[in-house]
Amino acid sequence: MTDYPADSILVLLETSPAGELASSAAGLLGAASLIGTPVALAVTSPGRGESQALAEQAAAAGAERVLVVETDSAQTQLTVPQVDALAAAAAAVAPDAVLISNSIEGRDVAGRFAARTSAPIAVDAIGVSRDDEGVVARHSVYGGAYNLESAATFGPLVVTVRQGAIESRAEARPVALETLELQPSGAAAATIESVEALEEASSRPELRGATKVVSGGRGLGSAEKFALVEELADALGAAVGASRAAVDAGYIPANHQVGQTGVSVSPQLYVALGISGAIQHKAGMQTAKNIIAVNKDPDAPIFEVADFGVVGDVFTVVPQLISALAERKR
Amino acid sequence: MLADEERTQGPMKIIVLVKEVPDTYGERKLDLETGLADRAASESVLDEISERALEVALAHAGSADGVEVVIMSMAPETAATTIRKGLAMGAASAVHVADPGLAGADLGLTARTLAAAIRRTGFDLVIAGNLSTDGSGGVLAAMLAELLEVANATALSSVEITAESVSGTRTTDDGAMRVSAPLPAVISITEALPDARLPNFKGIMAAKKKPFETLTAADLGIEPQDLAVASSIMTAIAEKPPRAAGVKITDEGDGGTKIAEFLIENRLA
Ligand SMILES: Cc1cc2nc3c(=O)[nH]c(=O)nc-3n(C[C@H](O)[C@H](O)[C@H](O)COP(=O)(O)OP(=O)(O)OC[C@H]3O[C@@H](n4cnc5c(N)ncnc54)[C@H](O)[C@@H]3O)c2cc1C
Ligand SMILES: Nc1ncnc2c1ncn2[C@@H]1O[C@H](COP(=O)(O)O)[C@@H](O)[C@H]1O
C-alpha cells in the first residue's frame, strides 16, 4: 500500500444523506489538483452499493485514486468514524496535505484528526498553493479586511476549505477504486439519535459559493413579506441570504445567515434589501464584486459599500425591479 | 478511553471556554508585523458566543443542584478584566492561562494547553462557542474532545444536560440532528441559544471575592516553543483596501427600473 504518488493530497469527500457525492467535492478536488495528486476518501454505508458510484463521481471530479471505507458507524456516531477512516487513509497514503470541507462536520473531523496525529491545522482556507517548502493555505480574515497565508513548519498540513471558495476544477481521471479496512479507534463518540433532512426549495442555488445572492433583513417586516426577497432571487437565479436580525425574527432558517457568524459569500452580485449593513453583516459580504442596496434610511451603513444604492422602500422598489426583469425576458 | 474516575467527585463541574476578542462593532486591526490582533486598535470584549455558552451553563446550574461553573481562558494577562465579567455574570471561579510564550499560539498549541488546564481543573462537561468572531476556527471543541478522550457534540442549537449525559439538536447544512453523549463530554453551542444575562451590581461585587487562578504554560507542563512539534505558522499578511461606495440615488418612482438598468449594464441579469 505504498504506491501512492509522492505528492498525494488526501481529500475527505462529503456525501449527502442519500449517499451521493456532496457539492463540496468538486472544489476540494480542484484545490488538491493545484498542489499535488488528489487521492480521495469517502466513507459510506456497506451493502448499499454506493462505493462504485461514488468512485465514479469522484474520478470524474479529478480523483486519481478513490479510497472507500464502508461502515455503518458513520450513521450512528458523530465524527469519530470519519476520523478513524481518515487516520487509516493518511497512514496508507502519507499525503503532503489533507483537505476537508469547512462545514460543521468537516471542521469536527479536521479538528479531531489534527489532534490525534499532532498535525498542524489551517482553517477556512479560500485557496491553496505550493511553494518550495510545501503547501500554503490562503485565508481571508476579519470580514475580508486582511489576507493571510499559513503553512506547516513540517509534516502534512490539515486544511479546511471554505465551501464555494475554490473555482478551479480538476480534470476527470479514470476510476481507481480501493476499499480500505477500518480499524475502529474506540474513541468516545456522541450518538446520532435521529436526522431530519432540511426541507428546501431545492431549485434555488446554494448560498455558499453562489454567484448571485439576494439577502433580506429586518426591513422586510415579517416572514410572509420576506417572500419578496425570494421572488427577486428567483428572478435573478440567485441564492437567498439574510441578516441575523431576519433569522432571529424567524423570517428564514439560520443556515441562510450571511455575516460574521453566518456564511461568508463573495458572489458576482449581492443585493441587500432592508438590511442596515451592520459591521458584522458586512464582514460576510463586502468582498462581493457588485453590491446593490435598497434601504429607506439614507444613512444606513450598507450604502458605504454599495456600488449602486437606492434610498427607498423595498416594497415599491423591488416589485418594480422584478417586473422590469420579467419585461426584459419577454 | 477516559476512565470514570476522571469525572469530578461531588458537584458536577462545567467548564465554559471563554475568549476575549476585539469588539466587532469597532474597526479591528491586525498588526502587519506580527500578524497578531492589534489590541490597542480596538476595544476588547468577551466574545458574544462565549457569553451564550456561559448562559447555557448558568441556566443549568440554576435549575439543578450541585452544579459548579468554571470559566477558563487562554489569553494575555490584560484579558483578566474581561474574563472577570464571566464571574460577575455568575460563574463560581475562573482559570486564566496567561503566558507571553503563548502569544500567537496556533490551534494545536491552544488545544494542548487548554486540554492540560481542563484536566487539571477536572470536568464533567466543557462548553465552547461554535465559532469565535476573531479566530473563527471552530475546530477547538473537536480537538479538545480528542485530546481529553471524550465525545464531542458541536454546533448545538439546543442543549439538555442531565447528571449523566448531554444531548441536543445540531443543525448542519443537511438538516437537524439529535445527538447525545455520556459525560464527560465537550460541546459547542451556536448563537441560536439565548443571549446571556447581564451582570448585576450584586454579581459584580461578589465577583471580586471569587477564586481567580492564573496559570503559566509551565504550570501545565506545556513547552510553547517546542520545535519538535509541527505547528502552523503565518507566512504572509496583507491588508485589503477598504471598499469604496458607488452611486446612491433616492427613489423617485423609478428606483426599481434604475437597478434593472444597472444589472443589465453590468451583465448581471
Ligand atoms: C458577535 C455578533 C455577531 C453577529 N453576526 C452577524 C451576522 O453574521 N450577520 C448579520 O447579519 N448580523 C450579525 N450580527 C448582528 C448585527 O449587529 C445587526 O444587528 C444585524 O445585522 C442587523 O440586521 P438588519 O440589518 O436586518 O436589521 P436592522 O439593523 O434593524 O436594519 C433594518 C434596516 O431595514 C431598513 N428598512 C426598514 N423597513 C424598510 C423598508 N420598507 N424598505 C427599505 N428599508 C427598510 C431600515 O432602515 C434598517 O436600515 C452580529 C452581532 C454580534 C454582536
Ligand atoms: N484562547 C482560548 N481560550 C479559551 N477558549 C477558547 C480560546 N480560543 C477558542 N476558545 C473556545 O473555542 C470557541 C471557538 O473559537 P474559535 O476556534 O476561535 O472559533 C470559542 O467560542 C471558545 O469557547
Automatic annotation (TrEMBL), chain A:
Cofactor(s) demanded: FAD
InterPro entries for this protein: DHS-like_NAD/FAD-binding_dom, ETF_a/b_N, ETF_a/FixB, ETF_asu_C, ETF_asu_C_CS, Rossmann-like_a/b/a_fold
Signal peptide per UniProt: none
Start and end residues of each Electron transfer flavoprotein alpha/beta-subunit N-terminal domain: 9-196
Record's keyword terms, sorted: Electron transport, FAD, Flavoprotein, Transport
One matching Pfam family: ETF
Tagged with keyword Transport: yes
Domain of life of the native organism: Bacteria
Cell membrane is among the record's keywords: no
Cited PANTHER family: ELECTRON TRANSFER FLAVOPROTEIN ALPHA (PTHR43153), ELECTRON TRANSFER FLAVOPROTEIN SUBUNIT ALPHA, MITOCHONDRIAL (PTHR43153:SF1)
Quaternary context: Heterodimer of an alpha and a beta subunit.
Function: The electron transfer flavoprotein serves as a specific electron acceptor for other dehydrogenases. It transfers the electrons to the main respiratory chain via ETF-ubiquinone oxidoreductase (ETF dehydrogenase).
Family: Belongs to the ETF alpha-subunit/FixB family.
Protein name per the record: Electron transfer flavoprotein subunit alpha/FixB family protein
Organism field: Agromyces humatus
Organism classification: Bacteria, Bacillati, Actinomycetota, Actinomycetes, Micrococcales
